[in-house]
From TrEMBL:
Domain of life assignment: Bacteria
Protein name, UniProt field: Lytic murein transglycosylase
One Pfam family hit: SLT_2
Gene Ontology MF annotations: peptidoglycan lytic transglycosylase activity
Biological processes annotated in GO: peptidoglycan catabolic process
UniProt xrefs under PANTHER family: LYTIC MUREIN TRANSGLYCOSYLASE (PTHR30163:SF8), MEMBRANE-BOUND LYTIC MUREIN TRANSGLYCOSYLASE B (PTHR30163)
Signal peptide: 1-18
InterPro entries named among the record's database cross-references: Lysozyme-like_dom_sf (IPR023346), MltB-like (IPR043426), MltB_2 (IPR011970), Peptidoglycan-bd-like (IPR002477), PGBD-like_sf (IPR036365), PGBDSf (IPR036366), SLT_2 (IPR031304)
Residue stretches making up the Peptidoglycan binding-like domain: 334-387
Keyword terms of this UniProt record: Signal
UniProt organism field: Paragemmobacter straminiformis
Length: 387
């Protein structure tokens, strides 16, 4: 279900772009062909790759509209996590137990995390996207929004095509990701693993390849072997809400000394952690460890990452979260109005898009503190009115 969040864009390094974005598509293709040949690809391979390639307007439409991430954590998590998906996850953990054991041994990545992303990206391979991958990549590489990210992906796809690992009718997500765990060509070339021993890395059809490649990707982003990522906690009524948020870290045992209680397991003594309140002090609360932040290299959306991290704990045996009774989420129009007010006050909230991302949360918490409100980083109608 990937919506592009610049997560897997670690493609082959590229100097100044050889193919100017925008303008005549045929001229752009000619420039890209020259760049690919200069990089070592044969003219025949390059010509074959671009034969019949066309921009896809559906890709640009999808790129401009990612409203799913405007949902609150409770809405988003309840829409993605079902009894059926949980049961499928447990079944796949058993079916590919030896592969997950390899992922944990070789790359240090928990099966829970890999299962969660496998579930959310493609429903365990069942829904991998119907966009022609080549056309999606050339569309985004020709577009002037992020050519520096996508032109190297086109070059990587050409290289994969020459290796026999990229068919021109390959389909996937609108942003060019391929396979069961939705990786971009540059990442597949750099980090893909032949998990089934057939001599190829085929993430569309091979679960072992997809699982191990995803594990290696997370390891490359700094995943810490043997460490937790998220634990649900219960906070005391007297808790200082200004201490919540990812920009405040204390040792896990320090949080415990303040009365923070984990609902299952024990706190990971010695590890830094933050108190995470996806929907403020009246909703679920979590301890977020360093591995939680690593997941933003997979997807930049706060609500997506938090939901995946939570689902991974469920797959590893954690209880369902205590939903609580948080204040209602602001509608999109009000959230945009809030972001505009915060920006006018000098806060960096990024794009005015109605999405409660990390920078908007930080700004909300600062204004809550200034106004003497509970500083839990959850925007309310009261806060909007006061601003």
């Amino acid at each position: 279900m990937r919506a592009l969040t610049l997560a897997l864009m670690t493609a082959t390094a590229s100097p100044a772009l050889a193919a100017p974005c925008g303008g005549d598509f045929g001229s752009w293709v000619a420039a890209m062909k020259a760049e690919a040949v200069a990089a070592g690809e044969t003219p025949a391979t390059v010509d074959a790759f671009f034969a019949g390639a066309n921009p896809d307007p559906r890709v640009l439409k999808a790129d401009r509209a990612q409203g799913v991430f405007r949902k609150s954590f409770l809405e988003f998590s309840q829409s993605l996590i079902s009894k059926d998906r949980l049961q499928k996850g447990i079944a796949n953990a058993s079916r590919y137990g030896d592969i997950f054991a390899r992922a944990e041994k070789d790359y240090g990545v928990s099966r829970g995390i890999l299962l969660a992303f496998w579930a959310f990206e493609t429903d365990f391979g069942a829904v991998q996207g119907d966009f022609n991958t080549r056309n999606a990549l050339v569309t985004l590489a020709h577009d002037c929004r992020r050519p520096d990210l996508f032109q190297p992906q086109v070059l990587a796809a050409i290289q994969m095509h020459g290796l026999g690992e990229f068919d021109l009718d390959t389909t996937g997500a609108w942003a060019g990701e391929i396979g069961m765990v939705q990786m971009l060509p540059g990442d597949i070339l750099r980090l893909g693993v032949d998990g089934d021993g057939d001599g190829l890395v085929t993430l569309k059809t091979s679960a072992p390849d997809a699982i191990l490649s995803g594990a290696r990707l997370l390891q490359s982003h700094g995943w810490r072997a043997g460490e937790p990522w998220l634990q649900e906690v219960i906070l005391p009524d007297s808790f200082d809400w200004e201490l919540t948020g990812l920009d405040t870290q204390l040792a896990a045992e320090q949080w415990a000394a303040m009365g923070v209680q984990v609902r299952s397991g024990v706190v990971a003594n010695g590890l830094p952690a933050s108190i995470l309140l996806p929907q403020g002090r009246k909703g679920p609360a979590f301890l977020a460890y360093p591995n939680y932040s690593v997941l933003f290299n997979w997807n930049k959306s706060f609500v997506y990452v938090t939901t995946a991290a939570y689902f991974a704990t469920r797959l590893m045996g954690a209880e369902p979260y205590r939903a609580g009774n948080p204040d209602p989420a602001l509608p999109v129009a009000q959230m945009k109005a809030l972001q505009q007010k915060l920006a006018a006050l000098g806060h960096d909230v990024g794009q005015i898009d109605g999405i409660l991302g990390a920078s908007t949360r930080i700004a909300v918490q600062k204004e809550q503190t200034r106004l003497g409100l509970p500083a839990d980083a959850w925007p309310t109608a009261d806060l909007l009115e006061r601003l």
